[in-house]
Amino acid sequence: MSVAVKQRVAFHTLGCKLNQAETELLARRFAAAGYHVVGGDRGDVCVINTCTVTHVADRKSRHLLRLLRKRNPGALIVATGCYAERAPQELAKIGADLVVGNEQKMEITDLVKDRSASAAYCSAEESVVNGIIRVRSFIKIQDGCSDYCAYCVVPTVRRREYCLSVAEIISEVKARTSAGYKEVVLTGTKIGAYKHDEVNLRHLVERILADTDVERVHLSSLQPQEISAELLSLWRDPRLCRHFHLALQSGSDAVLHRMRRRYSIADYEKAISSIREAAPDAAITADVMVGFPGESGDEFEESHRFCRQIGLADIHVFAFSPRPGTSAVKMPVQVGDRLRKERSLRMLGLAQRSAREFRERFLGQNTTVLWEKEVTPGSGVYSGLTNNYIRVFAESHERLTNQLLPVKLAGLYEQGLWGKLIK
To answer: Considering the domain boundaries, does residue 376 fall inside one?
Structure first.
């Protein structure tokens, strides 16, 4: 029933690609319920999908909640995600009207409608979120983790392990392709553990490539022990993105053991070698933690040296952050803040050099870029990503958004490369 009032809903996402996938799904549910999905802080309803993986993520979540409450005091503010699962009372105390954990996240649309029953709704529509939603879509294939690494709070905030069925995932991919998306990103807490009715990750990707017309498929993150010759054989298909985010955390076997990671440095080297043999132009990126409890100067140097030797395309560096309920909190020999900061800066310097060296390898080559949007409206400069996830910028008088177009990589530019469109 069409009526005059149509409520607006705005989404704000912190943290991982899984959170992004869930926000996307929530946005579609709200649109189907008759809401108008908007950007920024202009919503009658503001949904914050929080992260709690570090104390910095907690701080960002709290800051965003307070900012939205200040800028839009009349909005219904909903806090969800991992911070909401771990400490709902903290978010309620600083201004969230509704706090919803991960288990009930997909019920938010109904919960909000119940709280605003007097509001009127119009017919559903497909909405655009953040201007890039029709370019790349995040699809959740799995959730939950029971590994309980020493530093990680995720198993306590995403407790239930489950995998979506192949039919559900194929249906989602087809729906996203029909809606105009060129790329889908398969995401989850631990996608390498995907298994549903004897179908593993390799078979799932095979099915997606065989049964859909999607133009690019990207796997969000894998563990070294999940890399196999059978899985890598799929990269013969050019639609699979040549980007592997491969968990590392430390380049020291002793630190990995204390972290309770399930691989060694030798395992990691073997995985990298297999990837480069299957896809020589692949970008391999990693998360690296510094300052884990007990990390000695020699262990840090070992980690730094390993990261330099293996030639990563980029490194996400973060300092150890004590998380409530994890065993690392109680470990002896906690590394001080000053030392953690010094080590972070050194590892960040290596990350910048490694990323630049990787990009330089492709100067002068022709490749294809999936263009996203103008960097600044009206500038005529567009930004997009190559198949191996190098950020490319190019000038165009014509709109490039959501097009896969060939370019020549001409030079270094900001945190990426400058490209020249090939007519």
So the answer is: yes
Angle value at C-alpha 397, between 393 and 400, nearest 5 degrees = 55
Residue numbers of the domain that contains 380: 366-421
Q: Per residue in 320-376, pLDDT tens?
A: 999 999 999 999 899 999 999 999 999 999 999 999 999 999 999 999 999 999 999
Tally the domains of the chain.
2
3-state SS class at 12: strand
pLDDT digits (tens, 9 = 90+) for 396-410: 999 999 999 999 999
Rounded to whole angstroms, the Cα distance separating 152 from 132 reads: 31
pTM for the predicted model, two decimal places = 0.86
267 conformational bin, left if phi > 0, alpha if psi -120 to 50, beta if neither: alpha
Residue 312 domain-assigned (yes or no): no
Q: What is the CATH number of the domain that holds 393?
A: 2.40.50
Strand partners, 408: 366, 420
Judge whether 198 lies within some domain. no
Coil, helix or strand at residue 202: helix
Q: Going by C-beta distance under 8 Å and a sequence separation of 6 or more, which residues neighbour residue 10?
A: 37, 38, 39, 40, 41, 42, 43, 45, 46, 47
